[in-house]
Write a structure and sequence with these properties.
The structure holds 2 protein chains of 2 kinds. By secondary structure, chain A is α/β, with parallel strands linked by helices. Chain A is about 30% helix and about 30% strand. The chains are: A alpha/beta, B alpha/beta.
């Protein structure tokens, strides 16, 4: 049994999501190989080679792979797929983009967004935005999975695998990268952050999100929002935590002025500790919060910033 | 240009899914069903392209039980021209859906297929990408903006951490994200008019596609419930508890 993990990285660095997928791969069993597909990605490949439990790293480089275009990723993964019993990618926007192409070409039904591995052919995944957990047994000879990185431990260092360079197939003439506009923020990415502070309709305006940003900057937290706040135009859609936005599971989630619609809860209820600040003590968010504070957010949030300052943040 | 819009009938997004006591699935009896929200966005985008003169015809296709016809009627009422209903009562996994859609594409020869990035029931997020691979077409998933650029499309995609723009030659597959547009409500006259628009009835056998599932559902369970927490009296109390009790600060 040999398992291939397709790495998430930005060429210079390996993304932690890769380490979580390596852990999932180890649970399936057998040798674990990591494919680093990119351009100028030797540094990321070297990082992958050091992960505990990784037996081999494959490095493929080309222009089309620089931005992981789905068509190019499909070709390079298929070029090595024959050697593997299972192929895993993180359920990031990148993994979700290319991996189903690979599955379809292998005539395999992909198991998406796996949160637990019960057996080499049996997997748990959330459905209905996490309102139910489905355990599925795959009858396909080869398994193709995307893995939710937040639910697996990150594999640490300790390995010393070899890095083998493989050929990158020619790029598709039918798609090309034009540009990328990554949110310019010193704050961590919503899906990766250890602490998330989110605002809802209670914030009243986009300007008032500055209150949350001040707290976020103290804590090194990401800023999120409920769909209500996005729909009201307070913040852009990429802030949205929920069923139709991003699913997060940080160590600490602070919900400010968020009532707790099903939609929102689905996106954050796996957080380790949940704090809710809301002036309505009947708000459903309090039913999932570990610590609830019934208070006017316009008083409580500046106070929180001050208290954190006192606590050394 | 002809646009094909595959759509799915799912539990209404405002309804909380309840797991059946026998753990075989989610209870859908007497539950409000609607068009998958991402599919509505796909229908809207296709209609807007037609209104801008970029497309001549919008064809809505749905695979599912008899009631999926209502979902097709909704798309027709929004402005799609005609429908195709591939009738089956079986569970159809994304791979089988992609194979059926490939057959529909081969019969209809659209230059563009726009579909939702995922259905809010199985949350697989796979059908569009699988269809693209089976057809050998380029794809632009999770679209928040679609623009015609000569014979190609420039598509802005929602990716982790921001936005990415790709250019894809036609024919292509586009899957929709939330920010792409706000779907319209069908007006009463359009709902009446939609009743006379044609819907072709097909079966998976017509296309010679094997839709046998590859995944066996062992069980469906409720996620572990969070136990109720406590109320704190002040911000100072909150920070102290996060620091000393929860250990997250």
């Amino acid at each position: 049994m040999t398992v291939l993990v397709v790495a998430e990285h930005d060429n210079a660095h390996l993304n932690d999501a890769t380490r979580a997928v390596v852990t999932a791969a180890k649970k399936i069993g057998g040798d674990v190989h990591v494919l680093v597909a990119g351009k100028g990605a030797k540094a990321a490949a070297d990082e992958a080679a050091k992960i505990d439990g990784v037996a081999k790293v494959l490095l493929a480089e080309s222009d089309a792979l620089e931005h992981k275009l789905a068509e190019a990723m499909e070709s390079v993964i298929l070029s090595v797929a024959d050697g593997y019993d299972a192929l895993l990618a993180p359920a990031t926007t990148s993994g979700k983009n290319y991996m189903p192409r690979v599955a379809a070409k292998l005539d395999v039904m992909q198991v998406s967004d796996v949160t637990a591995i019960e057996a080499p052919d049996t997997f748990v995944r959330p459905i209905y935005a996490g309102n139910a957990l489905q355990t599925v047994k795959s009858s396909d000879a080869r398994k193709v999975l995307t893995v939710r990185p937040t639910t697996f431990e990150k594999a640490g260092d300790g390995g010393s695998a070899s890095v083998e360079t493989i050929d990158a197939p020619d790029a598709s003439a039918h798609s090309e990268f034009v540009s990328q506009e990554l949110s310019k923020s010193d704050r961590p990415e919503l899906a990766q952050a250890k602490i998330v502070i989110s605002g809802g309709r209670g914030l009243g305006s986009g300007e008032n999100f500055a209150l949350l940003e001040k707290v976020a900057d103290k804590l090194g937290a990401a800023v999120g929002a409920s769909r209500a706040a996005v729909d009201a135009g307070f913040v852009p859609n990429d802030y949205q935590v929920g069923q139709t936005g991003k699913v997060v599971a940080p160590e600490l989630y602070i919900a400010v002025g968020i009532s707790g619609a099903i939609q929102h809860l689905a996106g954050m209820k796996d957080s380790k500790v949940i704090v809710a600040i809301n002036k309505d003590e009947e708000a459903p968010i309090f039913q999932v919060a570990d610590y609830g504070l019934v208070a006017d957010l316009f008083k409580a949030v500046p106070e929180l910033e001050e208290e954190l300052g006192k606590a050394g943040y | 240009m002809k646009i094909l819009v595959p759509i799915k009938r799912v539990i209404d997004y405002n309804v909380k899914a309840r797991v059946k006591p026998d753990q075989t699935g989610v209870d859908l009896a007497n539950v409000k069903m609607s068009m998958n929200p991402f599919c509505e966005i796909a229908v809207e985008e296709a209609i807007r392209m037609k209104e801008k003169g970029l497309a001549e015809e919008v064809v809505a296709v749905s695979i599912g039980p008899a009631q999926a016809q209502e979902t097709i009627r909704t798309a027709l009422a929004m402005g799609a021209d005609r429908g195709i209903h591939v009738t089956t009562d079986q569970t159809v996994e994304p791979l089988a859906v992609a194979k059926l859609l490939k057959a529909v594409v081969e019969a209809e020869s659209p230059q563009l297929v726009i579909l939702g990035k995922q259905a809010i029931d199985d949350d697989a997020n796979a059908t569009g990408q699988m269809l693209a691979a089976l057809l050998g077409w380029p794809q632009a998933t999770f679209a928040s903006k679609v623009e015609k650029d000569g014979e190609a499309l420039a598509v802005t995609r929602e990716v982790d951490g921001g936005l990415q723009t790709v250019k894809v030659n036609l024919p292509a597959i586009v899957t929709t994200d939330l920010r792409l547009n706000e779907p319209r409500y069908a007006s009463l006259p359009n709902i009446m008019k939609a009743k006379r628009k044609p819907i072709d009835a097909k079966t998976p056998e017509d296309f010679g596609v094997d839709i046998a599932p590859r995944l066996e559902t062992v069980k469906v369970t409720e996620p572990p419930k969070r136990k109720g927490g406590i109320k704190v009296e002040s911000v100072a109390d909150l920070v102290a508890k996060l620091k000393n009790e929860a250990g997250v600060l």
